[in-house]
């Protein structure tokens, strides 16, 4: 049995501390992995530095996810798994977000395109918004999903609504505009559509959208 | 010809981070800089493919904005198979999560089982036995072969060649027989447990696998003869759906998608696990990043997997498959019935489940689709706080819009096939 | 479409059940001919979503071969299909899709629910999975298994063939379209909740930890 706390943090952690004294909150090692906790304000600068600085070159974004603990005292964490392909090194960056505060961080879409869908999924499952993401909408649930953000701990396993209500909402989240793409595709026919359909399409209205 | 700009929300609404619906401009009719002959019009057509469609490899919905036959924009919609695995995992003991992993990537189930067991063992700091290590390598490589065979068969069908599908599935049946003999199930084996395996291989199993390794390369050669120098195949796959090296890294691609673009990143070589550094095998790396290179990479990977299987079979020595740690592995029944301490361990494990220490661990393995990672966060109880699956197919699929831009409609199907997605893992 | 389940409310408008006309030699011979033709040339609409779809593909491949049961042509267009084989789990996002596919199929049509997920929701009793497609459409044969062996699916197909052979052309209830009602549901709401209820061991799963 190897005690997980024995390993020392990687050299990158020390370099980060030196470079971003105020941005780095703490460094932890868990099961041999180095984890650096950073502040929300400095996260984008730190991640950009990690990606672009020679000697760091964390060019590969392995994963973006979030963790919510069962203990209500602990904050929500946004987790970035990074890898430097050339130097064969891994790093985990975490941003702690106060549950009662705004759940917002800056998107890293401009640094790694791989963050596109990964951040959308975190938004869908946790409700954390990523500023600067070009198209932040739900990806796994349907866009007008009204029950909440499923991976939050206050979201029950079976959801908030009854099964009949979930079935009803699911069947209804399919208004004609969702599938009647023939109207959308024929721009010239716009003038011939019924008035309320025109207004709905022009507003971009769908289902439960208010 | 209408010159009115028609901006409409595409499918269901998109919100930008300010809460405004982000609209998707539709119709080049309003854009005078397109360089079209205005008389003929430059109307774009929206075509919806899926979610029920034979060529989408599962319930994937693609909305294509077409200009004639050329794709201007491709917008994939996923989530039609979202099963809530990650949420469900928070309500299961660690060993109860293993059957769930079968059902994420159901084309390579044993590899998923191995990945999860390795992640939890990293969390707990457990060293598995030598025999277990070799058996897990066998499980992973068998999964690689069956996953690539499905990819081969379905890609062939998408591009019009039906027969290799039947050959591929016939070979898969042989692996299924072996999986069934080992675990009892063809497709959902749940072969690992934390700290060991579900069961040891039965007698005569090794001979069965050796027979498979002996005859399988002949089938690959048959398929190779059909495809590799086939004019139609080459015409449809070369130069199509190209991802350059830099793009592939930036889009976080992994597995054959990444290697076909010339990036030599294979988790088995770069971050070895299960003793892969001791096996003698090559990792095929492509050059052009098109569908043809991905095809060549996967075909060669199947051959290399056969090579690894033969070495693993040679390496397999008698011994225990489970660690003798009573906190993770059930004590033998005879001891549990007679010895009080063993009985308590048995009781605690069955009733409460195994309890890792507080901490977190990320473990990535080389799945047939790419780097499959399991990120487990534990708070000391028997159910994880967070079970995150790093889904290679999901991330590879996010590059589809990039690859399809400027390609023809028929190429979209070929490109989608080359990404080798499995919707169970994309949507989890 | 399968036989109407009297427990589900029978005819939606509450009219009394119409009895089958008295059988004579000609009608029974006609029934036999029609049923023989229908049961031996079922064109499946493979609505394959997950793991069961792979076992379905294995059933259609050379070793098990459902072509010998008349299912030579997999009809991916619902308009030309006889039997919808729902192979795999159906999340709520997919519910309107499968309902729409079912509505698009012309009569006579049947439904095989392949696998435990399509039949009852299987182990996925959570916010996102439909707890059995019988909450969305009438099902004729349920094939248990996760996934069912190809032999199991073939047995299910043979059961359906047997069921078809027992049908009668003059029975008006058989070919009645059961549509989604004005309340947005196929079954009454309390029936959906009842069918979706957990039972047995699964009632314990919401305990988060010991």
**Count of DSSP strands of chain A:** 7
Which consecutive residue ranges of chain C, at least 5 long each, have pLDDT under 50? 1-19
Let me know the number of strands of chain C: 4
Which chains share the greatest interface?
A-B, 73 and 74 residues
CATH topology of chain C, by name, is Rossmann fold
Count of DSSP-assigned helices of chain A: 7
Mean pLDDT across all amino acids of chain C = 83
Helix content of chain C: 25-40%
Task: Give the CATH level 1 class of one domain in chain A.
Answer: Alpha Beta
CATH architecture of one domain in chain A: 2-Layer Sandwich
Q: By CATH's scheme, which homologous superfamily of one domain in chain A applies?
A: NADH:ubiquinone oxidoreductase Nqo5 subunit
What is the element string of chain A, with H for helices and E for strands? HEEHEEEEHEHHHH
Q: How large is the count of helical segments of chain C?
A: 6
Shape of chain C: globular
Widest β-sheet, arrangement of strands of chain A: 1-2-5-4-3
From the alpha carbons, calculate the radius of gyration of chain C and give it in angstroms: 18 Å
Which strand order spans the largest sheet of chain C, edge to edge or round the barrel? 1-2-3-4
- Poorly predicted spans of chain A: 1-5, 175-188, 205-210
CATH architecture of chain C: 3-Layer(aba) Sandwich
Report on the structure:
The complex is a heterotrimer of chains A (210), B (428) and C (210). Chain A is α/β, with parallel strands linked by helices. Chain A has helices at residues 11-19, 43-52, 115-126, 163-172, 176-179, 181-185, 195-203, and strands at 24-30, 33-38, 60-67, 76-84, 89-97, 104-106, 129-131. Chain A has a domain at 1-140: NADH:ubiquinone oxidoreductase Nqo5 subunit (Beta Polymerase, domain 2, 2-Layer Sandwich). Chain A is built from seven helices and seven strands. Chain B has helices at residues 85-89, 94-102, 109-124, 130-158, 163-183, 205-227, 231-237, 245-250, 256-260, 267-270, 291-315, 333-338, 340-352, 392-397, 400-404, 409-419, 423-427, and strands at residues 6-8, 24-26, 45-49, 61-67, 70-77, 192-193, 196-197, 359-366, 371-378, 386-390. Chain B has two domains: 6-77, no CATH class; 85-427, Cytochrome-c3 Hydrogenase, chain B. In chain B, helix 3 (109-124) runs antiparallel to helix 4 (130-158), helix 4 packs antiparallel against helix 16 (409-419) and helix 5 (163-183) packs antiparallel against helix 6. In chain B, the strands form four sheets. In chain B, strands 3-4-5 form a three-stranded antiparallel sheet. A three-stranded antiparallel sheet of chain B has the order 8-9-10. Helices cover 46% and strands 12% of the residues of chain B. Chain B is globular, with a radius of gyration of 24 Å. Chain B has 428 residues and is of the alpha+beta class. Residues 1-14 and 22-40 of chain B have low confidence and may be disordered. Chain C has 210 residues and is an alpha/beta fold. Chain C has a four-stranded parallel sheet. In chain C, helix 1 packs antiparallel against helix 5 and helix 2 (51-60) crosses helix 5 (150-165). The longest helix of chain C is centred in the C-terminal third of the chain and has 16 residues, at 150-165. At the A-B interface, strand 3, helix 3, strand 7 and helix 6 of A face strand 3, helix 1, helix 3, helix 8 and strand 8 of B.
